[in-house]
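Entry type: protein chain
Record version: 2
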Amino acid sequence: MDRARTRITVAGAGAFGLTIAGSLARAGFTVSVFDPSETNASSVAAGMLAPVFETLLDPVAAGHFPLLLAARDLWPKLAREVGVKLDLGGAMAVGDGDFLGAVAAGFAKLGLTAQELARSDLEAAATGLAPALMEGLLTLEDWRLDAAAALAALRKSATEAGVVFRRQSAAGLEGADRLVIATGAAQGLTSVAPLLKVLTPIKGQILRAGASGFDGVLRLPNGYCVGGSGGFAVGATMEPGVDDLAPTEDARMRLEAVARDAFPDLETNFETQVGVRAATPDGLPMIGCTADPNVFLAVGARRNGWLLAPMAAQIITACLTEGEAGPYAARLDPMRFV
């Protein structure tokens, strides 16, 4: 295959689409990215690279820890290549004894040990934390990034590698030789890739505000709080089967309650942001070849689009170069749903 003469259309400019496009361009292919919108689930996400807490707190992710950890371990190389800043400060769990006991037991099952935090440790890490939160647990295995800054860095790196961006939807190959579909929950290309029909949309809402003074990640029984240079975020709701982008008052109230549980004196005006994720029946994405040798999928990452992005790029690039796809490519093969 003459890579320079092989034209690839990537449909979707989220974390998956941009990471894949950049990887393919650096491998020598001629790549165009099609996406009609500047907003997607990746831009709304909190940017957590969280193999530990996603495994512990999301029942659908139970059993996926080795895969999620392997995906996280691909991030330092990608971050250096494209200029994404990773925050390696870890994540803290706070809550009552039952919640922390369950988290500690989960850590033990994963073969991990959490660092126990006293009230003084929590106060040092999170000024204004609710007085009722007397202790916590810290893991340094979960990282994070600023989603907006990471998208900008990925796009800039892809552009520098020769990727061309089209502000429109892809209706198919768009004159290219290969098509990579990374359109999240969208169903517009089902005629090209019928496997997209197995995806379920999941509407998610998150609250954002300006900087709060808190810099870190808090996992609570009913949600999470993330603070940093990108502002303060509280999340997140999940509504399986719902694909509209309308914010709701019920979600706002629920998420504001999460913020008050953590920081009762927090005074800020929140903005609600809405995204729609995609999920497969087994909770893992479809990444790889389809029955059509010219069409590839990278969809269905559920809550872990950012975490899994470098693994998606590795697998798709390997499909087109006969390179090393990594040990989890077979587990993510789209054809498992045929």
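Comment: The first strand starts at residue 7 and ends at 11.
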